Amino acid sequence: MKKDRVVMVADRKSQESKQLDEMRRGGLQWMGIGVEFAAVVCGCSWVGNWLDKKGGTSPGFLVLFFLFGFVGMIYTMIKRAGGLKWKDDGGSDGSSNNNINNDGNEGGSEGNDGDGGSGGDDNDGPG
Question: How far apart are the C-alpha atoms of 78 and 127, rounded to whole Å?
């Protein structure tokens, strides 16, 4: 009985150790991305400043290259995080795919289609 309890405690500590290692690994990964973010934005800003000094266009290139580096790194961070998770409503054009007619009543293609007529197509033209 006592051996079973010792094994259970050891298993629990092993699981906690694995979870802690995963958390550390994830935290270190994101800290590395933060350092990369700062390096890219600073590097792009430095190039923009250098171009401004060469061309006498201060602060045009500095602002342009800063924004280029910033937006590029935001895009990279989103990609590394697994992308944006948009709520999928079933429609590829942003419309909902939930079988509700124009007048708000639920139903399929039969019945009131919102044009005042009896069935037919959904356009309001003649015919």
Answer: 50
For tokens 């550390």, what's the residue?
A: 24
Written as one letter, the residue type at 98 is N
pLDDT digits (tens, 9 = 90+) for 32-65: 889 999 999 999 999 999 999 999 988 999 999 9
DSSP result, 3-61: HHHHHHHHHHHHHHHHHHHHHHHHHHHHHHHHHHHHHHHHHHHHHHHHHHHHHT-TTHH
Beta bridge partners of 10: none
pLDDT of residue 20 exceeding 70: yes
Pick from 18, 27, 30, 19: which is nearest to 81 by CA?
30
What is the SS3 assignment for 96? coil
Q: Domain residue spans in the chain?
A: 8-80
